[in-house]
Design the sequence.
C-alpha cells in the first residue's frame, strides 16, 4: 500500500525515510533546518513546507525493528502508538496547518490508534448480543441480512484487501495477531488521549535483555481467555430454549457463525501469549571448523558446527569415542584460535551445545564475524 500512499503524497508513517528535493531544502546537499526524524509529525511538517516524503524498501529495516520477545513487542508498539497520538497535539501534526484535505485522513487514523481500539470493541460486540439480547439490526430477517448485508460486505472486504495488499494479509493469521495486540494497546490508546505526554521513554529490549522475559504474557492472556469464555457462555445459553435471549429465527444463526470465528481467532491469539523458550542469546554463524575437545586426560575430535559470541554447537562421530559426561572443565582447541574453555548445557546423540565460559577475548577471536555484525 505504500506505493499508493506515495502517489497521494501521504507517506507519513514511522519507518519512512525522507527524500527532499533540492529546491525544497534550499540548495543541493543541504538538509532542512528542522532536525531529520522518522516521526510522522516531522514528515507532516516537511510536507507542509512543502517537501515530499516518500517511502523506501523496508525489508531490511523491518527486520532490524522486529521485537525479540513478547515484552519487547509491546514496549515497542506502545511507544509507537503513544508517539503517533502525541502528533495530534503538535503544530505539525495531522491537525496542523499546511496540509491538503487528502493528506489529513490518510494519516489521521494511525495516530488516533483506532485499529487496536476498534479490534477490541469488535471482539466484545457479540457478547452483548448473546448475553444481553442486543439486536444490531431491527426490522429485518436472517435471509435478507445474509443476502443484502453480510455477503456483499464480506465480498467487498475480501476483494479490496486482496487488491490493496495481495497475499500479505491472511485472515486466520492477521486477525489473531491484531487481537493479540489490541487488548494490550487499547488501554495505551485511551491513556495517551487523556495524557499524551509525561510517560518516560522505554527502549525496546534486544539481545540478552529480551531473553529473560516472561514465558507467558498473563496480562494479555487473561482478557483474551475471559472474552473467549463469555463467547462460549453466550452460545451455550442461547442454544438452550428455556434460557435463550436471542430467538433462533432472528439474528442467532449469524451470531453463531461470527462467534465461532471469534472463538477460533481468540484461541489462536491466546496461543501467541505463550512464548517459547529461546535457547540462544546471540546470533549463530555457521563455521564447520574441525576442533579437538579436551576433558581431563581425554580428548575427542569434533566439528564446530556454528558459534556465536557466547555459545557453540559441536558434532562428533557417533561411532567414535563416547562424549564427555561432565558439563564443566572442558576445553575446545580450534586451529588458529587456541584453547577456549566451555560449559555443556544440552546433549543429544553425537551432538553437544553450550556456552563459552566468560573468556570473552577467546570467544571473540573464535568468531570475529559475530562481533563485526
Sequence:
Amino acid at each position: 500500500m505504500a506505493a499508493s500512499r506515495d502517489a497521494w503524497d501521504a507517506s507519513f508513517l514511522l519507518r519512512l525515510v525522507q527524500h527532499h528535493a533540492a529546491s525544497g531544502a534550499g540548495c543541493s546537499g543541504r538538509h532542512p533546518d528542522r532536525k531529520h526524524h522518522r516521526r510522522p509529525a516531522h514528515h507532516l511538517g516537511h510536507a507542509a513546507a512543502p517537501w515530499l516524503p516518500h517511502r523506501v524498501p523496508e525489508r531490511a529495516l523491518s527486520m532490524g525493528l522486529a521485537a525479540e520477545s513478547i515484552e519487547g513487542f509491546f514496549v515497542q508498539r506502545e511507544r509507537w502508538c503513544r508517539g503517533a497520538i502525541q502528533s495530534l497535539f503538535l503544530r505539525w501534526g495531522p491537525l496542523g496547518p499546511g496540509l491538503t484535505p487528502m493528506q489529513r485522513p490518510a494519516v489521521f487514523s494511525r495516530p488516533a490508534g483506532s485499529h487496536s481500539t476498534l479490534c477490541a470493541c469488535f471482539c466484545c460486540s457479540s457478547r452483548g448480543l448473546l448475553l444481553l439480547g442486543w439486536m444490531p439490526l431491527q426490522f429485518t430477517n436472517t435471509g435478507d441480512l445474509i443476502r443484502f448485508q453480510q455477503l456483499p460486505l464480506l465480498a467487498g472486504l475480501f476483494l479490496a484487501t486482496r487488491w490493496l495488499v495481495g497475499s500479505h494479509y491472511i485472515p486466520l493469521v492477521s486477525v489473531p495477531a491484531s487481537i493479540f495486540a489490541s487488548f494490550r494497546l487499547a488501554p495505551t490508546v485511551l491513556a495517551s488521549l487523556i495524557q499524551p505526554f509525561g510517560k518516560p521513554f522505554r527502549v525496546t529490549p534486544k539481545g540478552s535483555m529480551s531473553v529473560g522475559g516472561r514465558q507467558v504474557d498473563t496480562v494479555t492472556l487473561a482478557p483474551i481467555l475471559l472474552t473467549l469464555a463469555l463467547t462460549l457462555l453466550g452460545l451455550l445459553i442461547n442454544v438452550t430454549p428455556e434460557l435463550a435471549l436471542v430467538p433462533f429465527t432472528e439474528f442467532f444463526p449469524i451470531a453463531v457463525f461470527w462467534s465461532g470465528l471469534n472463538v477460533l481467532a481468540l484461541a489462536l491469539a491466546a496461543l501467541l501469549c505463550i512464548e517459547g523458550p529461546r535457547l540462544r542469546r546471540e546470533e549463530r554463524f555457521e563455521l564447520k571448523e574441525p576442533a579437538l575437545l579436551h576433558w581431563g586426560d581425554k580428548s575427542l575430535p569434533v566439528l564446530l558446527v556454528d558459534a556465536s559470541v557466547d555459545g557453540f554447537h559441536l558434532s562428533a562421530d557417533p561411532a567414535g569415542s563416547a562424549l564427555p559426561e561432565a558439563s564443566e572443565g572442558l576445553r575446545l582447541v580450534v586451529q588458529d584460535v587456541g584453547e577456549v574453555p566451555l560449559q555443556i548445557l544440552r546433549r543429544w546423540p553425537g551432538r553437544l551445545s553450550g556456552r563459552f565460559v566468560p573468556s570473552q577475548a577467546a570467544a571473540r577471536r573464535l568468531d570475529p564475524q559475530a562481533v563485526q555484525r
Residues 142-165 form the longest helix (24 residues). Residues 114-272 form one domain.
